[in-house]
Specification:
five-stranded antiparallel sheet, Frm2/Hbn1, Nitroreductase family protein, alpha+beta, 203 residues
Length: 203
């Protein structure tokens, strides 16, 4: 099978998996090595290498979602209205771990100073860099049959996350990727017509 076909099949395999358990089909070390490889080899604007990542397993993974649940419960207030969110967070807790994606604002500031012509673009490019890391890691997890889904509970949990895991002030939290063993595959996916989403000229 060609490398292109392999890559395309992995792109199709990468889905949002919500039915997860903590019984990973691989070791924690293999997940860590996968993330390390992504940090080294995922591109970034101007080779800024601004992505920062924290991987949580076990009790630390559970603690993250306890923090999220407690924070959101205070915001929502009403127990009945909060039940749906509580159930959703319980699904995240059932997973094996969470990958936290950050961008280093200090690196962004340095890039702005070094290339002032593009100063307003560097924060945008930093988010694009983070997105590429998320996609690379998510697809790599799919390649070893580890399911994942991507969440965005920032900024409401940012300060508690920083305090709990001693995160540097310049690290800005962008996303949380829950991962674990796949207990139930993703359902069918609907696609909008390609011709509505893409144009080709000069062919």
């Amino acid at each position: 099978m060609s490398d292109l076909k392999d890559l395309q099949q992995l792109a199709e395999k990468r889905r949002s998996i919500y039915a997860l358990s903590n019984k990973l089909p691989v070791s924690n070390d293999e997940v860590v090595k996968l993330v390390e490889h992504a940090i080294l080899h995922t591109p970034s604007a101007f080779n800024s290498q601004s992505a920062r990542i924290v991987v949580l397993f076990g009790d630390d993974h559970q603690k993250l979602w306890d923090i999220t649940e407690e924070t959101l419960k205070v915001i929502v207030g009403d127990d009945e209205k909060f039940q749906g969110t509580k159930d959703k967070i319980a699904g995240f807790k059932a997973g094996a771990g969470t990958i936290l994606f950050f961008e280093d604002k200090g690196v962004v500031r340095n890039m702005q100073e070094a290339a002032p012509l593009y100063a307003d673009k560097f924060p945008i490019w930093a988010h694009q860099t983070s997105a590429m890391h998320q996609y690379v890691i998510w697809t790599a997890l799919a390649s070893i049959d580890v399911g994942a889904n991507l969440q965005h509970y920032n900024p409401v949990i940012d300060q508690q996350v920083a305090d709990t895991w001693n995160i540097a002030d310049d690290w800005e939290l962008n996303a949380q990727m829950v991962f674990g063993a796949i207990e139930q595959p993703a359902g069918d996916k609907e696609f909008k017509p390609v011709e509505e989403r893409m144009k080709v000229f000069g062919k």
